[in-house]
């Protein structure tokens, strides 16, 4: 989601990492179509299998209910959800002014089909396309893909909602926005919400060159008021907001390649501050690329799983992909239901340690993707517990601890041992490591 990439490239260039494996086939098949592979190919079978599922479109699913709730807050916005997740790196990054050294481009962070095609890493990949088609206010919900660790809150596929609205950059249009701001402010002033704000524009969160500072102020206020109302809709009732105990929302300056000024929004919920979304005034280069000059506007992006886990009390992100009726039957379209765990099955921990061949590297995300391909969702988390460089041979040893635990049933020792054996075998085959 937006907030993962909030640091500027000058602070994170050291995080650019490269996938250490090479494709074993000349083609990869995705939804019945074959694509050539090359030296960048790192998409995995387990990720490919998720592409057709589209959880956010399945009636009754928690992600579908949350999506509908968000859409209800923007009734006049057009809605999109049918864009293919396969996009070019240019569309995913360059059209949105991502720096060349941004970590999102690296093979350790993103899934590439080949040098010309990848799985989108954010819904913003379609921003230029939607604007170019003439849409001036819209919501886009889609599955997005990022290589990541394995734990209760991370998954290589998740779902985002992107929202955007643009305005004519003239005094008449700005006056209409000001009137809308007054309307939104009246609603919030009479609601059970307290907002900790920051300056709309500052030296550390500047107006863009070429933007009228007054216009940028008005647009930023419209963005904040619109999203404060969304936070109230999503969390007000769940938090039990009252006049004496209102919902608390705070704004924080942020950095994104595709907006300026930029912000993150946090909500105080169940005793702690939770990061909810990122947003800002759209970079003018994005609108210029979409061939819509003399406009300016705002955009935001949020991750559905993160918010759904909070609102539905879902403890493990793997559960969203469950087909077990004990999970699915607890939810109904349009209703926020508290998830009731139907069982907690025992863990089974297995360690694997190995020497990495000289001159090669193995990123944690490489290991996690391998484990997902072999074990699927039977793994609750993976942790690197040791990284050792031999003082004489200069060889690197790593050790990972895999926590096998199904969400739906108990795993037998024989089953876990078989899976672990296949993980170890694939590790040696794919990366050429020496098992210790």
UniProtKB/TrEMBL annotation:
Keywords (A to Z) from UniProt: Aminoacyl-tRNA synthetase, ATP-binding, Ligase, Mitochondrion, Nucleotide-binding, Protein biosynthesis, Transit peptide
Enzyme class: ligase
EC number: 6.1.1.20
GO annotations of cellular component type: mitochondrial matrix
Ligase is among the record's keywords: yes
Domain Aminoacyl-transfer RNA synthetases class-II family profile: 67-341
Alphabetized InterPro entries for the sequence: aa-tRNA-synth_II (IPR006195), aa-tRNA-synth_II/BPL/LPL (IPR045864), Fdx_antiC-bd (IPR005121), Fdx_antiC-bd_sf (IPR036690), Phe-tRNA-synth_IIc_mito (IPR004530), Phenylalanyl-tRNA_Synthase (IPR002319)
Broad class of the protein's primary localization: mitochondrion
Pfam families given in the database record: FDX-ACB, tRNA-synt_2d
Catalytic activity: tRNA(Phe) + L-phenylalanine + ATP = L-phenylalanyl-tRNA(Phe) + AMP + diphosphate + H(+)
Annotated ranges, domain FDX-ACB: 343-436
GO BP annotation list: phenylalanyl-tRNA aminoacylation
Any one GO molecular function term: phenylalanine-tRNA ligase activity
Subcellular location per the Swiss-Prot or TrEMBL entry: Mitochondrion matrix
Domain of life: Eukaryota
Family: Belongs to the class-II aminoacyl-tRNA synthetase family.
Function as written in the Swiss-Prot or TrEMBL entry: Is responsible for the charging of tRNA(Phe) with phenylalanine in mitochondrial translation.
NCBIfam families, sorted: pheS_mito
PANTHER family per record: PHENYLALANINE--TRNA LIGASE, MITOCHONDRIAL, PHENYLALANYL-TRNA SYNTHETASE
Protein name as it appears in the record: Phenylalanine--tRNA ligase, mitochondrial
Species for this entry: Amanita muscaria (strain Koide BX008)
Organism taxonomic ancestry: Eukaryota, Fungi, Dikarya, Basidiomycota, Agaricomycotina
């Amino acid at each position: 989601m937006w907030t993962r990439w909030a640091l500027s490239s000058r602070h994170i260039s050291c995080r650019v990492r490269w996938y250490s494996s090479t494709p074993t086939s000349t083609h990869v098949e995705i939804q019945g179509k074959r694509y050539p592979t090359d030296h960048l190919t790192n998409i995995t079978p387990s990720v490919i299998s998720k592409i057709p599922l589209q959880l956010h479109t399945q009636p009754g699913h928690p992600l579908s209910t949350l999506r509908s709730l968000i859409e209800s807050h923007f009734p006049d916005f057009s809605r999109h959800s049918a864009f293919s997740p396969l996009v070019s790196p240019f569309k995913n990054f360059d059209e949105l002014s991502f720096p060349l050294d941004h970590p999102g481009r690296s093979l350790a962070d993103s899934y590439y089909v080949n040098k010309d095609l990848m799985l989108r890493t954010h819904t913003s990949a379609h921003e230029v396309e939607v604007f170019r088609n003439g849409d001036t206010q819209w919501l886009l919900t889609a599955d997005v893909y990022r290589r990541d660790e394995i734990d209760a809150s991370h998954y290589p596929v998740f779902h985002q909602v992107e929202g955007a609205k643009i305005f004519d950059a003239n005094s008449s249009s700005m006056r209409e926005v000001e009137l809308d701001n007054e309307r939104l402010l009246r609603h919030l002033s009479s609601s059970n919400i307290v907002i900790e704000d920051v300056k709309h524009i500052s030296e550390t969160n500047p107006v863009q060159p070429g933007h009228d500072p007054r216009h940028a102020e008005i647009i930023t206020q419209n963005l904040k008021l619109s999203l404060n109302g969304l936070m109230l809709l999503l969390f007000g009732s769940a938090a039990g907001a009252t006049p004496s105990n209102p919902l608390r929302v705070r704004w924080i300056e942020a950095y994104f390649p595709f907006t300026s000024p930029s912000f993150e929004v946090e909500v105080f919920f169940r005793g702690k501050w939770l990061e909810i979304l990122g947003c800002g005034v759209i970079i003018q280069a994005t609108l210029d690329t979409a061939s819509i000059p003399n406009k300016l506007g705002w955009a935001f992006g949020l991750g559905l799983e993160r918010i759904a886990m909070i609102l539905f009390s879902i403890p493990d992100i793997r559960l969203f992909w469950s087909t077990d009726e004990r999970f699915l039957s607890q939810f109904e379209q349009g209703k926020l239901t508290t998830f009731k765990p139907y069982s907690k099955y025992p863990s089974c921990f297995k360690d694997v340690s190995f020497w990495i061949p000289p001159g090669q590297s193995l990123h944690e995300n490489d290991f996690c993707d391998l484990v997902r391909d072999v074990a699927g969702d039977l793994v609750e988390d993976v942790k690197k517990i040791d990284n050792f460089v031999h003082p004489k041979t200069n060889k690197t040893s790593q050790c990972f601890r895999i926590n096998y635990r199904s969400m739906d049933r108990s795993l037998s020792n024989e089953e876990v041992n078989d899976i672990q054996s296949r993980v170890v075998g694939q590790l040696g085959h794919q990366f050429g490591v020496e098992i210790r």
